[in-house]
Write a structure and sequence with these properties.
By secondary structure, the protein is mainly alpha-helical. It is built from 13 helices and no strands. Helices cover 72% and strands 0% of the residues. The N and C termini lie far apart (75 Å).
């Protein structure tokens, strides 16, 4: 019995050691991502894939590969890559996400699958990529409704952009109010260790376009609040997230309640907050720097 217990203890220690080693590997990969070392990140992921046969570990690596390929496509686009080159990368990113999902059910894989499809559609143009809309919506809806995962900020950002950029009826189901609700949810789910100042920019652009007065916002948000309380489908409930906390809600980037400011006043406030957050953030990627330039340009315009 003692011998059996010793064997079990040794096996447990070995298992924990291997898990700790893999956790360290993921931490190193995520640090490379944070410091915008995309090529090194991809190399580290590919090396780690050769060193594990565990499907759950492989799943974690493949969705990160999906993410890094998308980020590489963004950088290559800045350097003048052709649409065909970009489409190939987004399609590769989607396939990596699918590989991750074939190994384990992983909400992050679904999110980056939708992100790659979304960037494919964005590059193609909304009218030329209407067929990509439902796969994005269905993927995020599955994460929310079936997996019960509501804290994936990138997922909310992607679905917000979908509703913002799609044409409305009768061509498709683009809807500015839904886009704004999804963008608010994206902001409210930003992790403490992420900058994501582009989320604030996205909501600011939507609000500037909608251009409601404070009084109109007040009456509309009251209606959204009723719809939020009555809708049972969790994903579709977030169509009305703008009313989730009522008209007197004070967002964390504001000193006044939603019903005390117009859309365009809030848009300017969002951009100023994003700028302040960027200024104190310790690490900036190339994409972060491009985003702050756009924010500063919008501040001058707004």
């Amino acid at each position: 019995m003692k011998k059996l217990m010793s064997v079990l203890v040794i096996a447990l220690i070995a298992s924990l050691s291997l898990w700790a080693s893999f956790a360290d590997t993921l931490e190193e990969i995520d640090l490379l991502d944070m410091y915008d070392r995309l090529e090194d990140e991809q190399a580290a992921i590919e090396k780690a894939l050769k060193e594990t046969n565990d499907p759950v570990e492989q799943s974690e690596l493949y969705w990160r590969l999906s993410k890094v390929v998308l980020h590489q496509a963004d950088e290559l686009e800045e350097l003048g890559a052709s649409e065909d080159e970009l489409f190939a990368l987004f399609e590769a990113g989607e396939k990596y996400a699918d590989t991750s999902l074939s190994l384990a059910e992983n909400p992050d894989a679904y999110i980056w699958k939708a992100s790659n499809i979304g960037r494919w559609g964005e590059t193609k143009g909304p009218l030329n990529a209407l067929g990509k809309a439902n796969p994005i919506k269905d993927t995020i809806s599955y994460v929310v409704n079936d997996l019960g995962v509501l804290d994936k900020t990138i997922g909310w950002y992607v679905i917000g952009q979908l509703y913002f950029k799609l044409p409305g009826w009768p061509l498709s189901y683009g809807d500015l109010d839904i886009a704004i609700s999804m963008a608010r949810k994206a902001i409210d789910t930003i992790p403490d260790d992420k900058l994501y100042h582009g989320h604030y920019k996205a909501l600011a652009e939507m609000l500037y376009k909608r251009d409601w007065s404070a009084s109109k916002r007040s009456s509309k948000i009251k209606k959204f609040e009723k719809d939020w309380k009555s809708e049972s489908d969790v994903f579709e409930k977030h169509f009305y997230y703008e009313g989730a906390y009522g008209v007197s809600h004070v967002p964390h980037y504001s000193s006044v309640a939603l019903n005390k400011m117009s859309d365009r006043q809030e848009a300017a406030m969002l951009l100023m907050y994003a700028q302040q957050k960027y200024d104190v953030w310790p690490i900036h990627s190339r994409a972060d720097k491009r985003t702050i330039e756009k924010i500063e340009n919008l501040l001058e315009e707004y």
